[in-house]
Amino acid sequence: MHSATQRNNGDLFIDQVALSTIAKQFGTPCYVYSKKAIEQNFIAYKNALSDQPHLICYAVKSNSNIAVLQTLAALGAGFDIVSVGELERVLLAGGNPANVVFSGLAKTSFEMRRALQVGIHCFNVESESELALLNETAAELSLQAPVSMRVNPDVDANTHPYISTGLKEDKFGIAFDTAIDVYKQASQMSNINLIGIDCHIGSQLTEIQPFVDATERLLVMVDQLSELGIQLNHIDIGGGLGVRYHDEQVLTVDALMKELLPLFSERSELLVLEPGRSMTANAGILLTQVQYLKSNDHKNFAVVDAAMNDMLRPSLYGAWMDIQPITTNNTPERQYDVVGPVCESGDFLGKDRKLSIAEGDYLCLFGAGAYGFVMSSNYNSRPRVAEIMVADNEAHVVRARENFEDLIKGEQGLPVK
Ligand code: LLP
Q: Is the pLDDT of residue 277 over 60?
């Protein structure tokens, strides 16, 4: 089920707060997160890893709201970042830079400089050119850059092609066959300190085997490197654990670790993980209101106030996300396409959903805590929506709804002649 929400007498609650109260108090659309659910998800990882030396680096890209980062930093989480913007957010939220890994295939020297200065745990390097630039940048600062190579293990994650990252045709990582040579090259560089190896084969994985295959390939390489005199301290197997949006057979972190931890039992390296979605998806929802109901001889449409610019996943990936009224009622059930106000037929949140709804009703889109607000835009000059976090059964605005001034910030038109 959806971990952050439950129904009570037909009304949907997030923790102990009714979504109807939040809708009336803060307006719609808005994202609502449960602090408690995020904490529970992190603790599930901690418990599953138990005695294994580990570092859980939350993938900031899945939800980078500062309140979310604060919640995780307070529990001692590390962070996986992909830009200097994400690094600044982590620092602002009180995250420890020594527990930050920097992923991404196009780091600039400006980004490297800042990350070196604050002393991150390591750079996950994705190419020889990036390695050369990092060595140069570190030399300019008279610092050593801690490095892990992101290798591409060529393992099929069996997920949506847009979020599969560990195959030869994907742009990510260093090809498995050449990685040893890149390590050898790196070991000769004066400002590179080789400390780890990493991979990330994809997102929304629902099978254990691809994780096991990728990890085994990494471990073989770690041993080969050790024979060459290159000793690594950590093995980072990325993120990717899937969550239940619909009727997916979902992997639990316990089930995954039961298969993975035995591979580490005779080893001394630190196990690093980069979970995003499994930490935040089911800790958040998107709240929206039905504006209009309309029908033709073919379809019924529920036109809601949230659109693809607020939640892109259904439009971009054809992702199925559950949609339910926040208050159950006796309106006759009909089949609807739930669509937004944006001027594109690709603007939908759900298709062919059986719903008992009337105009003015509020709907909840579940599993929206990950890759929701972070992927939103101002398309159609729509201000980005508010983000609310429920903490200790109280709702707080953790990002204010944008207004027109926010929309045109930095725009000044042409000079008047
Ligand atoms: N580490 C790296 C290097 C990644 O690229 C990603 C996600 C993660 C960790 C976290 O993966 P997770 O545990 O969240 O699966 N926008 C898409 C998902 C894109 C994932 C990109 N990389 C969606 O809405 O499904």
A: yes
